[in-house]
Amino acid sequence: MAAQGRPGTELLSAQPRGTANFGGKAVPGAVYYSDVLLRDPSVFNFYKMLLDGPNKHESQNWKAYNATFDQSFLNDRLAFQVAVDHQSYTTVDEGWMTGQNYEINVDINATYADGTPNPNAGRPYAGNGASQPGLNTSETRVRDVFRFTPTGEFRPSDFLGDTTLAKIIGKQDFTGLYERDQVTDTNLHFAEFAVNPQYILDNSNNASGISPPPTGQLEQNRSFEWIVYLGPSMLNSASAHNAHLTNIPFIVAPPRQQTVTNFNSRWNKPLDPTTPVMSIRRLRLPISPRALTPWVITTF
Questions:
Q1: What span, in angstroms and rounded, lies between the C-alpha atoms of 176 and 42?
Q2: DSSP letters of 259-299?
Q3: 205 CA to centre of own chain
Q4: What is the C-alpha to C-alpha distance for residues 280 and 277, in angstroms, rounded to an integer?
Q5: Of 195, 252, 253, 284, which one has the fewest beta carbons inside 10 Å?
Q6: pTM above the 0.90 mark?
């Protein structure tokens, strides 16, 4: 798609022989390019809409309480105070789309990976991997304080009587303090969605031979990746100007189970080097798809 026209819409310019030039801005004195920001609101009205729609969430929650207890004896000559204070603060950030993933793309695939035609070729879309733990964070800080304060009054006249020395010494007040202050910080990185462990076993050649198997790790190998189309095909458009793309208008969430067309790359022939199929003289490249597990309909 050639993107000639108004400033801010230079996305990708088509070139002969299958090459393309990225419409970035060269950095002086460097050999790399900076991203071009979208500046034309007729493509996407970034003044009034967030691209991720209702999917990004940020929240803060805090609680605080304290209590004190005072008791005195002997006409307030002995006393103590017990005080407790509790504070908790939690912040949650479900990033959904961050950094360079916060962008509008165009689907340039004419076919799907299994060779079937792609009916969405040329359509603009937004997408990301919502399972990546780095996108979602939660931090909780809890502070608990316990304080014990005893006080006492000493009068020399109790021992010296009403004497001149007792009057010179006067009276003394003593105060002690014991305090315990405990702060606990909890930081979590979590995946909002993920495929089940069977996906790892079906798509990793050596997953079953690893001890322990990597089925419990919520990394990119179990990532729930999504795309949402934002408008009609732009294959016949000379520019993205006046595309008036929408944002994501709904919450993106997978069902509990999803049926997909999945390619399993496991070799389904004998691995014995003496067998004809493994013979160097008989092996020809590219490898025939019949030697691999075909495309299958799988539920995860």
A1: 70
A2: EEEEE---B-S---TTSGGG-TTT--SSPPGGGB--EEEEE
A3: 28
A4: 9
A5: 284
A6: no
Q: Is residue 1 part of a domain?
A: no
Shared domain check, 196 and 61: yes
Element (H, E) at 159: helix 157-160
| CB distance 138 to 191 below 8 Å | no
The residue among 126, 129, 97 whose CA lies nearest residue 231 is 126
Q: Does 58 fall in a domain? A: yes
Q: Is the pLDDT at 248 greater than 60, yes or no?
A: yes
Residue with tokens 């009205």: 45
The DSSP H or E segment spanning 239 is none
pLDDT tens digits, 158-216: 888 888 887 888 888 899 999 999 999 999 888 888 877 777 776 665 555 555 555 55
Same domain, 224 and 286: no
The Cα angle at residue 279 between residues 276 and 284, in degrees rounded to 5: 105
Same domain, 103 and 190: yes
pLDDT tens-place string over residues 120-155: 999 999 988 766 666 788 999 999 999 999 999 988
pLDDT at 254: 85
Q: Based on the domain organization, do 261 and 216 belong to the same domain?
A: no
Check whether residue 156 and residue 116 sit in a common domain.
yes
Domain that holds residue 145: 52-229
Q: How far is residue 259's CA from residue 261's CA, in Å, rounded to a whole number?
A: 7
Residue labelled with tokens 């035609």: 117
Reported as half-sphere exposure (CB side, CA atoms, 13 A), residue 261 has a value of 7
Q: How far is CA 124 from the centre of its chain?
A: 24
DSSP 5: S
DSSP letter (8 states) at residue 35: P
CA angle 203, 208, 213 (to 5 degrees): 100
